[in-house]
Amino acid sequence: MKPIDPLRLPAGEQFSIGASDMSFFDNRAERCSAGALFCCRRGTADLMIDDFAGTMRRNTVAFLFPGSLLSFGRRSDDFRVELVVFSASLFAEAVFPLDFDFMRIVKQHPLSALRTEDVPAMNMWLGLVTYDFERGGKFRDTIVRNRLQNALMEACDKVMERTDEPSEERSAVTTRQGELFGRFAELVRQHCRSEREVAFYAAQLCVSTRYLTTIARSVSGHSAKTVIDGAVILEIKQLLRSTTLSVQEIAYRLHFPDQSYLGRFFRKHTGVSPSQFRKSGR
Q1: Comparing C-alpha atoms, which of 43, 128, 47 is closest to residue 84?
Q2: What is the rounded CA–CA span in Å between residue 69 and residue 30?
Q3: For 235-248, what is each residue's pLDDT tens digit?
Q4: CATH number reported for the structural domain that contains residue 184 in this entry
Q5: Three-state SS for 46?
Q6: What are 12-35's pLDDT values in tens digits?
Q7: What pLDDT digit, counting tens, does each position of 162-197 carry?
Q8: Closest among 267, 93, 96 to 188, alpha carbons compared
Q9: Cα–Cα distance between 263 and 165 in angstroms, integer?
């Protein structure tokens, strides 16, 4: 019987929980559309996430970013992980407010062995996400997004404690690129409600649009335009979730020409209309 992909989300869900032996990824590299956090409960296994190679043992935690290549090599017969899977859009919402260094550090150090004193906190985190999944509710996905964001920050903090990473591992090129991308991301957060063109941000940073796109793709894996559009989508989602503003009022607030233009923009990036998104409670 062919193993089932444990990172495939149920239809209509932004996250899921479960347990797996990860045999689906044995000796094959699969590019994952979803993100995930998985914690080894028993056994051992060798894995690769992009260029990182490591071994999972009991109470080892791995972070998988959407778009990463994942494969498993040798696995013990009793290997088992507990995992939480996140859609790419939910993962992006969690990552976007964080500084560039958070994303870079966690991606470079995706595997972390929990200290004995950290195990109860991880068990509690997994228990809370399980509770969120089972109870549902209008703001369930937002609550879980915040839990993921907290877990990413906690992981980054522990990596920096363990490796003194900022002073030892950052190259001069990476530092310059990271600083520019960080300034770009901050400008996007400040101005995305009114400015959606790369040229505006390039002018603010005194660089060409081509150079800004090159830096954005190098650091984040996405073009500058994709980063901007992603931020606008997050703004629209937040207004749809947390306000009673009509789509027309949201379009006016975000400087879209009209309601129809916003609707086409939103559907292009999410696959659903603003009204469908609001009704779904996602």
Answers
A1: 128
A2: 5
A3: 898 788 778 899 99
A4: 1.10.10.60
A5: strand
A6: 888 999 999 999 988 777 888 888
A7: 655 444 444 444 567 767 887 888 788 788 889 999
A8: 96
A9: 43
**Domain end: 109, 132, 164, which one?**
164
In sequence order, the 6+-apart residues with CB closer than 8 A to the CB of 223 are 213, 216, 217
55 sits in which H/E element: strand 52-56
pLDDT in tens, 266-281: 999 988 999 998 887 6
In a domain, 1, yes or no: no
Domain count along the chain? 2
What is the extent of the structural domain holding 254?
Answer: 171-280
Residue 8 lies in a domain: no
- Beta-carbon contacts of 108 under 8 Å, excluding residues fewer than 6 positions away, are 52, 169
CB-based burial, 164-184: b 16+ in 10 Å, e otherwise:
ebeeeeeeeeeeebbebbeeb
The count of other CB atoms within 10 Å of the CB of residue 91 is: 25
Find the length of the chain: 282
- Residue 111 shares a structural domain with residue 52: yes
Is 224 within a domain?
A: yes
Give the list of residues 6+ apart from residue 185 with CB closer than 8 angstroms, or none: 96, 99, 100, 227
Q: Which residue has the tokens 């590299």?
A: 29
Residue 234 amino acid letter: L
Residue 23 CB burial class (10 angstroms; 0-12, 13-18, ≥19): middle
Give the residues across from 46 on adjacent strands: 55
pTM of the entire predicted model: 0.63
